[in-house]
Amino acid sequence: MISRRRLLILAGSAAAATLTGINALAGEEKEEHVVDPNVPQWAMVVDIDKCTECMEELIEKTKEDWHEIKPPCVVACDTENNVPEFENKRIDPQWLKILKVRNELEGSKELYVPLLCNHCRHPACAQVCLTKATFVRKDGIVMIDFHRCIGCRYCIVACPYNARTFNFKDPLEGLDHINPKVPRRSHGVPEKCTFCVHRIDEAMAKGEEPIPACVEACPYNALVFGNLNDPNSEVAKIVRTSKVIQLRANLGTNPRVYYLM
């Protein structure tokens, strides 16, 4: 019979091997992918204190459980991107979700944290995709080609941010209206945040600054979006001068979503 101590050692070794494998894949991706400094690299900064203030105000105003509350950013995301809403929340796709977290220290304040696709520079979801349906655009946005997707859900398992959801039902059954600018998804494929890529492409074609729907709708200016390759952009200045973190940065995915603490 294996001893408890040896079991822990083996478990630790397995975990280390898993992380090493992820970092090795990320390293291979780094060698293949060279970022053109002339191409925008889109990123988002999330101010957790402002998000928390927004949610606390909504909870106080509506007197509802926080699970039932959709702040303006989530409502805007759903409406803009044809994200359906089903009665059965277990199969409800979510591009932008709010989590409640708290430090383990006694007396720590509860924080409300938006979670979305982190548009990683070295995304694990793309590395495991059997058909290369998940890919990274030159501007850093992680996309899904729904025509290539076979619905294996490996990408959902691989994503360290739980940012992808699977369409168990036809999204049309959970939609009251359709935004014709956003491609509709069928059942049997995953979906996720795209930084409102249609807005980005449209704005760039007009020579304007793109604004995702969630950023536009946020009443607290808690979400900042912009081009990291532009040193004068607000998002680049915040990342350069403020205390920001990337979720699970130790995995080597190098996310483009930063959290301002």
Summarize the structure.
Keywords: 4Fe-4S, Iron, Iron-sulfur, Metal-binding. The protein is of the alpha+beta class and about 260 residues long. It has helices spanning about 5-30, 50-60, 70-80, 125-130, 155-160, 195-205, 215, 235-240; strands at about 40-45, 95-100, 110-115, 135, 140-145, 165, 190, 225, 245, 255-260.
Features of this protein?
261 residues; alpha+beta; Alpha-Beta Plaits; four-stranded mixed beta sheet; two-stranded antiparallel sheet; 33% helix; globular; disordered N terminus
SSE layout:
Layout: H1 4-32, E1 42-47, H2 48-62, H3 72-80, E2 97-102, E3 110-115, H4 124-128, E4 134-136, E5 142-144, H5 154-158, E6 165-166, E7 190-191, H6 197-206, H7 213-217, E8 223-227, H8 234-241, E9 244-245, E10 257-260
Parallel strand pairs: 1-10
Antiparallel strand pairs: 1-8, 2-3, 4-5, 6-7, 9-10
InterPro entries: 4Fe4S_Fe-S-bd (IPR017896), 4Fe4S_Fe_S_CS (IPR017900), DsrO-like (IPR054822), ET_IronSulfur_Cluster-Binding (IPR050954), TAT_signal (IPR006311)
Keywords: 4Fe-4S, Iron, Iron-sulfur, Metal-binding
Pfam family, one: Fer4_11
